[in-house]
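User: Before I run my own analysis I want an independent prediction to cross-check against. Here's the chain; please return only the structure tokens and, at the end, one sentence I can use as a sanity check.
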Amino acid sequence: MSKIKFFSSKNKEQIRYKLIQGKKPVTIIFLHGFMSDLTGKKIQVLSKLSKKQEVSFLALEYSGHGKSSGQLINYGISDWIAQSKEVIEKITKTKKVILVGSSMGAWIGIGLVPSLMKTIKGFVGIASAPDFTKEIMWKKFSKRTRSIIRDGKIHYMSSSYGNSYPISKKLIFDGAKNLVLNKRIKCNFPIRLFHGLKDKVVDASFSIRLTKVLLSKDTIVTFQKYGDHSLSQTDDLKKIKKQLTNLIKDSC
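Assistant: Structure tokens:
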């Protein structure tokens, strides 16, 4: 049965999450991207996959996202990693998990690896965007924009989806405390990375760089020739589901 509920964190934040309890001892944990929520197509597809494979499924909305409490500009990567860790530890009943991170969610997932290392049976990165606050934002911002952010004001950054992202000092400076592209993390589980070559938001080179961060003896990087940043087209999702199904079978 699929349930959407709210989890009250230790900091009194109300975190909305979706949970499906399966029969098998594995939980797929989906971590969404920046300014996304529980209504995305990937969550719908992975929910159906989990039911078909009889495994559990957990997805959550970080504070400031979707219907979870708080304003986006008051939070950063540290908060979202901590919230995800708390929800996973309190909600997940299985001793085996497969992390699936989309865009920023992959960065959140990397932040969770050290504490969940013993339970992780696979890591799937979809259009992974580690360190995006530095590599995609701060490095490319003008001096004027940097000054605005340093002063604590909000910079509204245009997105390729026709809206704008509110970029706060909290997001940028907290992101700097959580950079991972300069790290090396030994992983005793498979790594599966997917990236679209038509991605105009996060260059495919990020997934290549990530292979030098998450060090595994079993790593596969799949580039989708016509895939964009969402990787939500039928062919994209088909390949993601295939790899995820294999990880589930190897974990059960």
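Sanity check: The longest strand covers residues 2-8.
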